[in-house]
TrEMBL record:
Species lineage: Bacteria, Bacillati, Actinomycetota, Actinomycetes, Streptosporangiales
GO molecular function, one term: hydrolase activity
Keyword Hydrolase (UniProt): yes
Pfam families: Abhydrolase_1
Annotated protein name in UniProt: Pimeloyl-ACP methyl ester carboxylesterase
Amino acid sequence: MAGTGDVVVLLHSSVGDRRMWDPQWQALLDAGYRVMRCDFRGYGETPAPLQPNNDADDVLALLDEVGIERATVVGSSYGGRVALELAARWPGRVDALVLLSAGSPAHEPTEELDAFDEAEEALIDADDLDGAVDLNVRTWLGPDASEDTRQKVRVMQRHAYEVQLAVDEEFDQLEVEVDLGAIESRALVVAGKHDLGYFRQVATDLADRLPRARLVELPWAGHLPSLERPDETTELIVKFLAERDG
């Protein structure tokens, strides 16, 4: 956490950790925000859970611990799902949402997404972590991602596997019923043309369902636009925040 001013919380994808926000970090500080990014349990520097947990609960507890009453929450993929749950369960704590290729607690996975999960699990069960990492890089990064970006995702994903496999048992998230209709904050919903159909459909539905949402479709993007074209995505985020401030 660094900076002063209104708070922006960055929640990472499940194929990364808080390092995925390196391209946005300094730009948001320079724009005058107090910026916080964290690792979910089992990612980055946070150990895997030893019992069932809920990541939205964890984020709320972190906000409470550092004395943050309200924040804009920027979530990528799984981080977007957590951001939606946070805003729905505690609407008074979220000023605004930026949802980059977000998952959703209110949308069932598609056959395409289930097939990816099965392929990843089979590679992990076969102790082929390199193959599982490559599967993630192929699936989640669009055509504009540089080789440096692909390598960064490889490093973060491989580290996540190592952290999660270091415990004897994998625990599921504690499920909480989430009513997206309770969300009060305005939202920028971002979708990538080259992303899986599930995430494009979620974006379209969220833009229709949330009363203060705006949909932006990026013709060049895969699933991780903040890494694929970081400057353009950062500009999109900063402009949205400035509109709120105005």
